[in-house]
């Protein structure tokens, strides 16, 4: 039995990941705003510290894996919570738990998005995220639309993983990411009802080559593989779990 930590585990993809890992016989420490083992608000430095300290305290012999699923969509209010949770909340936890992960030679699976490749995003915003400049990124974010904040945060997350995966694997920690396409969760259901995003969301779902939207279990199955021993030689990869959307939209980008 291994010990894994999953954030955003009260619902959606995070809940499905926690359920999947438990079904495989592992211990799962959950983090969220409610209905979890550790209650923490990852939009704040204080909440991130609470999450790290809580996870370390229940895994004193090291953490076998981390799946930071906590995230919010482009319809979220206030919009500045998008970079705070999606990027800084995730990266802060990975950095804060690095020693624990190295102790157990653990692995990390981040949750990016196929939205990260859908259009060009503001490079200054992405650069400030990658520079770990939270005040600067939030200042820049104030002048951008919510979709730019969301897609840019997921792009930066994938880039951060790629830029740091070599350093981490040399310390025994594998890092990879999944890039989900549209997946049926409470978060995406809210987007379906949003007057700004509903039409575009419906059109996006209708264009999925696989002919159906993703389910949280589709993402959980991919995470379970990437975080497990069967993926021991996979490092720095971004796996699109999107029913063929990325391949349809970017067939020559390889």
What does this protein look like?
Helices cover 49% and strands 13% of the residues. The chain has a 7-stranded parallel β-sheet, sandwiched between helices. Strand 1, helix 1 (12-23) and strand 2 form a beta-alpha-beta unit. It has a single domain (3-241), classed as 3-Layer(aba) Sandwich (Rossmann fold). The chain has helices at 12-23, 45-58, 81-96, 98-104, 123-130, 134-141, 146-170, 186-193, 198-206, 216-227, 245-249; strands at residues 3-7, 27-32, 38-39, 65-68, 107-111, 174-180, 238-241. The protein is built from 11 helices and 7 strands. It is globular and about 50 Å long. It has 254 residues and is of the alpha/beta class. The mean pLDDT is 95. The longest helix is centred in the middle third of the chain and has 25 residues, at 146-170. The N and C termini lie far apart (37 Å).
Strand order of the largest sheet: 3-2-1-4-5-6-7
Instruction: Work out the radius of gyration.
Output: 17 Å
The total number of structural domains is 1
Shape: globular
- CATH hierarchy class name: Alpha Beta
Strand content: 5-15%
Cα(first) to Cα(last) distance is 37 Å
Average of per-residue pLDDT values: 95
Structural class: alpha/beta
Features:
alpha/beta; Rossmann fold; seven-stranded parallel sheet; 7 strands
What is the topology?
Blueprint: E1 3-7, H1 12-23, E2 27-32, E3 38-39, H2 45-58, E4 65-68, H3 81-96, H4 98-104, E5 107-111, H5 123-130, H6 134-141, H7 146-170, E6 174-180, H8 186-193, H9 198-206, H10 216-227, E7 238-241, H11 245-249
Parallel strand pairs: 1-2, 1-4, 2-3, 4-5, 5-6, 6-7
Helix pairs in contact: 1-10, 2-3, 3-7, 5-6, 5-7
């Amino acid at each position: 039995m291994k010990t894994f930590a999953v954030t955003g585990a009260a619902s959606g993809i995070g809940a499905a990941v926690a359920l999947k890992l438990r079904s495989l016989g592992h211990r799962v420490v959950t983090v969220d705003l409610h209905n979890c083992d550790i209650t923490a608000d990852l939009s704040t430095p204080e909440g991130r510290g609470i999450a790290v300290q809580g996870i370390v305290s229940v895994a004193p012999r090291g953490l076998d894996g981390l799946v930071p699923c906590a995230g919010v969509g482009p319809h979220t209010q206030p919009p500045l919570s998008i970079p705070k949770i999606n990027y800084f909340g995730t990266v802060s936890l990975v950095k804060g738990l690095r020693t624990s992960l190295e102790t157990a030679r653990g692995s990390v699976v981040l949750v990016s998005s196929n939205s990260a490749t859908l259009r060009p995003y503001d490079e200054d915003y992405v650069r400030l995220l990658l520079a770990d400049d939270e005040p600067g990124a939030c200042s820049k974010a104030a002048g951008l639309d919510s979709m730019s904040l969301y897609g840019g945060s997921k792009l930066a997350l994938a880039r951060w993983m790629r830029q740091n995966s070599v350093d981490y694997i040399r310390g025994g920690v594998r890092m990879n990411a999944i890039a989900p396409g549209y997946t049926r969760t409470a978060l995406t259901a809210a987007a379906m009802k949003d007057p700004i995003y509903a039409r575009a969301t419906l059109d996006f779902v209708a264009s999925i080559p696989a002919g159906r939207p993703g389910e949280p279990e589709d993402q959980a199955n991919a995470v379970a593989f990437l975080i497990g021993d069967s993926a021991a030689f996979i490092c720095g990869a971004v796996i699109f779990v999107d029913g063929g959307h990325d391949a349809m939209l970017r067939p020559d980008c390889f």
